Amino acid sequence: MPKTSAATPPLLRRVNAGKLLGVLSTAGVMTGTGLIEATGLTRATVHAVCNDLIEMGWVVELDPGRDDTTVGRPSRRFEFNSQAGYVLGIDVGASKTIVVAANLRGETLARAGRSFTGQETPQQRTDLVDQAVAEAVAEAGVTDSDVIAAGVGVAAPVDRTGNILADDEFWRRFDTGLTARLSQQHGWPALLENDANLAVLGEHWRGVGRDVDDLVVLLAGERFGAGLMDSGRLLHGSRGGAGEMVYLKLVEGVGDTHGIARTARELGTAALADPAIDTILRDLAGPDPVTAELVFAAAAKGDLIAQGILAEVAARTARVVATLAILFNPELIILGGAVAEAARALLPAVEEQLATFTTTPPRVAASPLGDTIVSVGAVRHALNYVEQNALDLTLTARRF
To answer: Which ranges carry the HTH iclR-type domain (predicted)?
Structure first.
């Protein structure tokens, strides 16, 4: 749980502190006048809240400076103390975990990861996540006491109180009490959230979805999952199930939640099972199993079988994108996850077919964040917590 100060400030001052930190954390040095213009707050409020933040270590007041053109009292100048603490972004996927350590501007300081076999007990999975956490924290040169919060993403619906919706066998694999154990062991709050929700936060913050407030991110690797943003607001649903894709089992031409990587791999494997089919996939794969990456590579070399597979994958993906476009009418839908870079090759076919399914087709793009999309969003999730609770937190890493 967060370490709190002795006195709980009024709600309004808490909100105002969040506004000021949100502006300062993305800006350089700002004057009081600049903060007034950026936040709409009064001069008295800006200076009162800045005084609180300076005392707590969140903000540094710089020498006001002066030149011959200055008339009257020089403006106070403020800078966000990005090293006042640190946050972690933790992606706990089905096959691996990625941990990112960042300062309070969200700048990545270190990254670590571990792979899962799928046979681990809950405690063994927690141990592997913990190893990645320890490596990232050590590489960043900080300690547990310097970490204010960690965002944690899992491939399961998570409600507003941080509970996993365990109505599906796949989702139940993530209902292991991971965040409680991490918090108990390290002393910082671990904030659980659905991975696709974190992906849309990450894209809206640092990806191709910047400045787009009506946005969907479709995680499209092994299993489809969607994060939804409407007017800049993340959608959860009553039990955290907004954006879950189980309904795809009812969609003609789709039939399940299998993502782009899984579908390409399974179709490629089926092609090689027929010795009469001539494809360079055989040479590329050799004795090893077919992967989605090999299917995309074969298609890029002109292999007709692989190109046919990708045409089928694109048609299926277009139907998935179309359902999201019809239901939520976003401006932009982003294909995300480790498969995103390869999926760029599918975009022309997907966009062409979208117009046959909906009269308001969105733009479609591939994420530039690769396999860090969830961990980047988890960092943003942790930073949101920091900004919202700044006046309740006691800092230990005051480095000016």
So the answer is: 18-60
